[in-house]
Specification:
Largest sheet of chain C: 2 strands, antiparallel
Radius of gyration of chain C: 25 Å
Oligomer: heterotrimer
CATH superfamily of the domain at 29-65 and 77-280 and 296-358 in chain C: Cytochrome Bc1 Complex, Chain C
Number of helices of chain C: 16
Largest sheet of chain A: none
Shape of chain A: flat
CATH topology of the largest domain in chain A: Cytochrome Bc1 Complex, Chain D, domain 2
Number of helices of chain A: 6
Chains: A mainly alpha, B alpha+beta, C mainly alpha
Helix content of chain C: 55-70%
CATH architecture of the domain at 29-65 and 77-280 and 296-358 in chain C: Up-down Bundle
Distance between the termini of chain C: 17 Å
Structural class of chain A: mainly alpha
CATH architecture of the largest domain in chain A: Orthogonal Bundle
Strand content of chain A: under 5%
Radius of gyration of chain A: 23 Å
CATH class of the largest domain in chain A: Mainly Alpha
Structural class of chain C: mainly alpha
Largest interface: B-C, 82 and 108 residues
Number of strands of chain A: 0
Chain lengths: 198, 285, 454
């Protein structure tokens, strides 16, 4: 039976402790049966820890006024954000959010890697420059929050396969294959005394 | 040149490399069972293989003779008499077949018939008939425009300068019916009168499928009122009937006739007037 | 050893042949001769990693909901095929390593084939009697490219799904037969549920079987004809110079195989390739900028982007731009590739058998033509990535596209001129002393003498 968390925020634990508990419970109690949630992204862990920290079920009741400031993207749904992003945002900003070269306008779509998540809803609603504006009727609050969550995910994407090559797709991949793959192979061949005269 | 470069250093190097290879292979097995990440597994595998390869290379340099030898290149072609003999054998054999013409005619007829049967089989492989599929979408008169989540569009609630992807109600996700709905300021549309009748107060809809190679024409610049396709950079002027203004597309985006039903929601008044998406031979038929 | 050999010989009786054509086979040695080997060993890695992947990939377009461990796609509807790719990447131990090795091996495979092709071209290795092997090799190139395309398209992610649409439009663009051909290949309009299983059958069975058969032919012809030599002492159309297969060459090439596999393992482990989870599943309406195919298709994509909207209408029938930009360019390119040895023979009236290569500087016209072709495909390759180039270098796409259009016509001519002049200049000079010189250490017949008692 999992422990009652409704008063977790009043137990005097730091945010870092809560984050570590979510990511790797065995680091606090080696005998725990709680699974580790290391597949969550850092932002999800932060959001979860902030939520746990806000749970106070004492006589004074939960204190919304003392709750931490609303995390950008709160109330959104990450997978929904991904779908909306790929339908509406990726055509200009790229599926990985690294920006895109555009035709017919005087600027390229900027990379979203460095944009502050708190500023994203304003960009979506107002559509600066040639970017279209997505007002209330087009995107609900929840949809905007979902997109914010997804952009945050893209700012630190999962790269279990190693070095991400700036997430620019097949262009750096091809360069690496030719320069490193083929190049190293040729070097290896020369190393094995392939210096024959032909 | 005899085998050379045997020295204590070489032996140590070869031995050392093989040791590294064994250690890396064992470490790889351990890493696998401990669910190590891809870089660890790949790195250990690469180390093991490269060390064995290096060990073999060192061994080859030091202990294997690398004589350069020469040998004859015999002519590849057979003598003329052989080829003539082969040819005459083939021809003689063919000539010895009685009633050759009859046999050949029969085989030819069979090939023709089998070919026809085979082509009929291809029809199953082909799927639905192209002519109908390529020239019809799921849009029809009275069908409501809905977003991907199923919600219909109220005509007077769409903000100016906004853009939304829509589908026919009941056919969300149907590739050929993918449509883009835009609202611009009413006076700036440059459509001829019969096409203006297909708009509703500055609301205009076009097929979202680029007429070049079929990607969604999904980039929109609201300052220029231009729809662009990210695949090969075709651009379309949405004020002027989706006319291509640059890039490889050669036909305008088909316009969807819009109307309003009695609840104020946007509906289509019919299917697109021309086939959507990339062009094909009998496109205008 | 004797017992084993006696048993095998009793079955097949090939001892003499094995001595001459395998154990004692002479292989000329030069670093430019290893490109074909890199291709061969990459193919072996492709097959081995592919066998692993076959156990986990599900080639079905049926819609399922994701429930694996990658959170940003939780609950998202997707095809079985895409879901199995995610499972391989996140939930199968070692799966992502093998998947990435497989993809890297493909990119390196094609790079090696093309480099090998360039070496053959620039040294005239396609002349008699090697025209047949040139044809086999050209077909291998087409098969390799086809398998690369089917391989990354069966995953049904956003990027490859977009590529399938473009392939469909290209097939559709053919005059008269386009509609039927496109529907025949893809089983209907794209996307449809029949595509993935069809591409899968091609990718794991039909095309690899063809590649294997053609490779066996390719190597068999090579063994029959013996490898070519660069010009040098002792090397001629009647004498081959090199090192014996056993033990020297065999050990070296085994070591090389392991090195190539090690490099692919390092790439597969350390450098992420095709992160399909970041692209998401393909669904109607989804699109992305920088939608590039794998590198060896970029020239085709460049044709589609750079060529203006040239199209033809004949009595109301339409031949759209993709036909000219993609189909015609491909047909002409591969047509020239196949016909090249025969065209050269007709033009030079050279019907001799050649076992000694011609150095690029000795044949300035051929070198110039080859350089022009490479320059053309290079510009087209850049054209295929013009939006990413504009993004990286902070420029606009439009002027870059215009520049590349001009370069597509001008750069090949310029490059050909430069190559011609350089070749002419170099051919006047005497050969440097360490190239192609050095007498053989040991002269003798390549068929060792048999003992009198045999």
């Amino acid at each position: 039976m999992g422990p009652d968390l409704s008063d977790e925020g009043a137990k005097g634990r730091s945010l870092d402790w809560l984050k570590a508990q979510v990511r790797d419970p065995k680091s606090h109690d080696p005998n725990t049966v709680m699974p580790s949630f290391k597949s969550l992204s850092p932002h999800q862990v932060d959001a979860l820890a902030a939520y746990l920290d806000s749970l106070k079920a004492g006589p004074s009741g939960p204190a919304p006024a003392e709750a931490p400031a609303r995390e950008p993207g709160a109330g959104g749904d990450l997978p929904l954000g991904g779908e909306l992003f790929r339908l509406n945002c990726a055509p200009c900003h790229q599926a990985t959010g690294r920006g895109g070269g555009l035709i017919g306008v005087d600027r390229n779509a900027p990379s979203l890697a460095g944009v502050s998540p708190a500023a994203i809803p304003a960009f979506i609603r107002s559509g600066p420059g040639p970017m279209p504006a997505f007002k209330d009727y087009v995107f609900s609050e929840r949809q905007v929050a979902s997109i914010v969550l997804y952009v945050r995910e893209l700012q630190d994407p999962a790269h279990p396969g190693g070095f991400g090559l700036a997430y620019l797709g097949t262009v750096p991949e091809g360069c690496v294959a030719i320069v490193f793959g083929l190049g190293l192979a040729v070097l290896a061949g020369l190393l094995i005394e392939w210096k024959g005269r032909g | 040149m005899a085998a050379g470069k045997d020295s204590p250093a070489t032996r140590a190097l070869a031995f050392g490399l093989l040791l590294i290879a064994i250690a890396a292979a064992i470490a790889l097995a351990v890493a696998y069972w401990r669910d190590a990440g891809t870089p660890v597994l790949g790195g250990l595998l690469a180390l093991a293989l490269a060390s064995v390869a290096g060990g073999l290379a060192v061994w080859s340099r030091a202990y294997i003779p690398h004589e350069i030898v020469t040998g004859p290149r015999e002519p590849i072609a057979s003598p003329e008499e052989e080829i003539e003999a082969l040819s005459s054998d083939i021809v003689r054999g063919a000539n010895s077949v009685g009633r050759r013409r009859f046999l050949l005619a029969g085989l030819l007829a069979f090939t023709g018939a089998a070919g026809a049967a085979f082509v009929s089989l291809l029809r199953s492989v082909m799927g639905p008939s192209p002519q109908w599929t390529l020239t019809h979408t799921s849009w029809a008169g009275g069908v409501r425009l809905v977003r991907r989540d199923g919600s219909p569009i109220e005509a007077d609630k769409m903000p100016e300068d906004s853009i939304v992807t829509v589908f026919p109600e009941g056919h969300i996700g149907d590739m050929a019916s993918e449509t883009v709905l835009l609202r611009v300021k009413p006076g700036i549309l440059k459509l001829p009168p019969e096409r203006m009748a297909w708009t509703v107060n500055g609301l205009v809809a076009y097929s979202r499928i680029c007429t070049h190679a079929g990607c969604p024409a999904s980039q929109y610049y609201d300052t220029q009122h231009v729809l662009a396709c990210p695949c090969h950079q075709s651009t379309f002027d949405i004020l002027d009937g989706g006319r291509p203004t640059g890039g490889p597309a050669d036909r305008p985006l088909p316009q969807l006739p819009l109307g309003v039903d009695d609840t104020g929601h946007l509906i289509a008044l019919g299917d697109f007037p021309t086939p959507v998406g990339p062009g094909f031979w009998s496109w205008s038929r | 050893m004797m017992r084993l050999l006696r048993w095998i010989d009793g079955q097949l009786g090939l001892s003499r042949l094995a001595r001459k054509e395998v154990v004692g086979k002479i292989f000329p040695d030069h670093w430019t001769f290893m490109f074909g080997e890199i291709a061969l060993y990459s193919f072996v890695v492709l097959v081995l990693t592919g066998i692993f992947l076959v156990f986990f990939f599900k080639p079905s377009a049926e819609t399922v909901t994701y429930g694996g461990s990658y959170a940003p796609l939780a609950g998202v509807p997707m095809s079985q095929a895409y879901r199995s790719l995610l499972d391989i990447s996140f939930d199968v131990r070692g799966g992502l390593l093998i998947r990435q090795m497989h993809h890297w091996a493909c990119d390196v495979f094609l790079a090696a084939i093309i480099l090998h092709l360039c070496r053959l071209f620039f040294t005239g290795a396609y002349r008699r009697p090697r025209q047949i092997n040139w044809l086999v090799g050209a077909t291998l190139l087409i098969m390799a490219v086809t398998n690369g395309f089917t391989g990354y398209s069966i995953g049904d992610d956003l990027l490859s799904g977009t590529g399938l649409r473009i392939a469909f439009a290209s097939a559709l663009s053919l005059p008269l037969i386009g509609e039927f051909l496109a529907f025949l290949i893809f089983g209907g309009n794209v996307p449809n549920p029949a595509v993935i299983p069809r591409l899968y059958a091609l990718h794991i069975f039909l095309v690899p079987a063809l590649i294997a058969a053609l490779l066996a032919t390719h190597l068999g012809v090579l063994v029959r004809q013996k490898h070519t030599n660069y010009p040098g002492p002792g090397r001629s159309d009647t004498a081959i110079v090199g090192s014996r297969f056993w033990p020297a060459y065999a050990v070296k090439t085994s070591s090389f195989f392991l090195f190539v596999t090690a490099i692919l393992a390092a790439l597969g482990g350390f450098v992420q390739i095709n992160p399909v989870w970041l692209y998401g599943p393909y669904f109607t309406g989804a699109a992305t900028t920088a939608a590039h195919p794998d590198w060896y298709f970029s020239w085709l994509e460049g044709g589609l982007r750079l060529m203006p909207n040239w199209h033809a209408t004949i009595y109301g029938y339409l031949i759209p731009q993709p036909f000219f930009a993609a189909v015609l360019v491909s047909l002409v390119s591969f047509g020239i590739l196949y016909a090249w040895p025969f065209v050269v023979e007709k033009v030079t009236l050279d019907l001799d058998v050649h076992h000694v290569l011609g150095r690029p500087r000795e044949h300035p016209v051929r070198t110039a033509i080859g350089t022009a072709v490479l320059a053309f495909f290079f510009v087209l390759t850049l054209g295929g990535i013009d939006d990413t180039l504009a993004l990286i270098f902070g420029g606009r796409v439009s002027p870059l596209r215009d520049i590349l259009r001009g370069l597509a016509l001008g750069f090949p001519l310029f490059a050909a001129g430069v190559a011609y002049l350089v070749a002419k200049r170099l051919s006047g000079r005497p050969l440097p002393s360490d190239l192609g010189s050095g007498p053989p250490d040991h002269t003798g017949p390549d068929e060792p003498r048999t003992r009198a008692s045999d």
